[in-house]
Write a structure and sequence with these properties.
Strand 1 (3-7), helix 1 (17-28) and strand 2 (33-34) form a beta-alpha-beta unit. The protein is built from three helices and six strands. The longest helix has 19 residues, at 86-104. It has one domain (3-104). It has a six-stranded mixed beta sheet. By secondary structure, the chain is α/β, with parallel strands linked by helices. The mean pLDDT is 91.
Amino acid sequence: MLLAVAYCGGCNPVINREELVKYLEREMGQPIYSIVKMKFKVDVLILMNGCTRGCLIKKYENEWKGKMVIVAGHTIDFQMVNGDGMKECLLARVKEIAKLAENLS
């Protein structure tokens, strides 16, 4: 399962984007690559927006055809998440989407 992340510009972050990605890597036991550096087919793309403006959504909504998880501030796939639960909720959502991607392969 190949996971990649796209980071917003970080102009107004209300979450620690890098900390969330490092947590995912640790818990999933695999690297999450920067989409900028990817030359291979990615199974799941994580859009890591630091605030609810979600700048990356507009960039990738028509361009990306694969599975995606959208983080925008304290939301995951447009659902508000308590700040303390971001890591666990994000991990559960990425695992769910990754499983869907595997079943479609």
